[in-house]
Amino acid sequence: MAITCSVALVSQSQHRPQSFTPSVWGDYFLDHRPCNTSQLVTMKERAHAMEEDVRQTILDAAASYDLIQKLELVDTLQRIGVDYHYQEEVHELLRHVYDDSDGGSDDLYVTSLRFYLLRKHGYTVSSDVFLKFRDEKGNVSSDDVNSLMTLYDAAHLRTHGEQILDNIITFNKSRLQYFMETNLEPDLADEVRLTLETPRFRRVERLEARRYISVYEKKETRDKNILELAKLDYNILQALYCDELKELTIWWKDFQSRTYLGFARDRLVELHFWMLGVLYEPYYSYSRIMMTKLIVFASLFDDFYDSNSTAEDSSKFTRAIERWDEQAAEQLPVYLKSIFINVLNTTNKIVEDLKLQENKHAEMVKKMVIDTARFYHDEVKWRDEHYVPATIEEHLQISLRSSVCMQITTMAFISLGDVTRREAVEWAITFPKIIRGVSIVGRIGNDIVSHEREQVSEHAVSTVQTCMKQYGVTVEQANDKLRVIIEESWMDIFEEYLDQKHPMALLEKAVNVARTMDFMYKREDAYTMSHCLKDVITSMYVNSVYDPSSSI
């Protein structure tokens, strides 16, 4: 009866709402199991043996004088997704590479890979290492496609003012595009295409692992132990992710049974996949579950405030959230009352769970939920007044906060417990340079791909419209200008990443948020148009890469 009443009430509050497609997955993960219990036990036992074999391979490489072997081994472990097992060994190996006084090699490929790996791990390496490779026109390039891709990837680990890296990217982008038009082998052509679309540092790690397992398997130089470990590890984590989705699906079905959500996107699986991109390692299982629930609320808030609320209902709901008291629900329409109470109860349960884990940051979770509601509410006035900010900067002062990038990053920090000091959480919520950069990647990337669709309904103005107004340009020209801002933001992200004012374990999570945003909004709004993610999610959760009934 309450649900029927809610439908009637919500229809009176809508502002020409958007119509969203239903969930692609429904209850699928209530029953799906990629393997049975005995198969999982067998795989874990086999993986443990493989881990020790690969560890010995790393130690042997570290003891050798073969720089290429060291670099390519680290690169392989990272791309294939098993490096998290060997953090200490990899750190020690790269420290020795960094301390090597000759600074690398006269080989462009080796120099590029060394530069990439060391910078990625926070080492200060000057871009001047590429000066000796300039030709008579001042360009750095290669006729070898693999060397060129590695150079191009390395140059994207740039900071502001590194002109030689800027020039490498500009010149070699056209070179790689030229190679795409030649008769490259199909697999190599795919690698070039991906490099141009998403340089290696910006790729979502677990997606790259799944892709690279297939690539590595075809290499004649592959290490069979590394390949088998990667396949086993992928399947073991896949089973864990599916267990998490079962728990989340049970929670979500209960939440839906208590609340009218017909105005909102049903994207639980896609949100778990998103959070997996931020924290994929097995020991972050609770973090993924917690963050998925909280980001579900952010999505609900987005759909409510964006185009499904009146100014009055928006204000009432925001005031209730700020009060954080069930009695505040009495002032709300029926459909908002049920949402409010369920958000309150779930969030309070998360806070209790974190306190039981002796997490010192537990109370900050409430602040993240409250701030998210406030940030979305701030945009309602723009929507109702059809206000177009005069400049992109004016727009970002409000809209960066509703990208929820800061909230995702901060929740990741909170979930790590003792790894995160109080000052790191307080730093993150002030939108420092790295968080602002991540938020710009998310905000502008989202606007570019969803601008036209969202204008069909009552909707807050996007950065695309503001850019068109500020510069008097077309949609296409505005998008080009906004993409330049995204590139500059990646430099901001990497500058603060290199500064290491906070532990790399935290800074890496911020970068991971940017990577997931870049992926989600690469070609379209893949979160909203969730059919675009079906194949990717199938490869991540459904299709196995290792047959547990046989060996490689």
From TrEMBL:
Keywords: Metal-binding. InterPro entries: Isoprenoid_synthase_dom_sf, Terpene_cyclase-like_1_C, Terpene_cyclase_plant_C1, Terpene_synth_N, Terpene_synth_N_sf, Terpene_synthase-like, Terpene_synthase_metal-bd, Terpenoid_cyclase/PrenylTrfase. Signal peptide: none annotated. One of its GO terms (molecular function) is terpene synthase activity. This is Terpene synthase. It comes from Eragrostis curvula (weeping love grass). Residues 253-492 form the Terpene synthase metal-binding domain. One of its GO terms (biological process) is diterpenoid biosynthetic process. Residues 24-196 form the Terpene synthase N-terminal domain. Pfam families: Terpene_synth, Terpene_synth_C. Coiled coil: none annotated. The keyword Metal-binding applies. The keyword Metal-binding applies. Gene3D superfamilies: Farnesyl Diphosphate Synthase, Terpene synthase, N-terminal domain. Its cofactor is Mg(2+); Mn(2+).
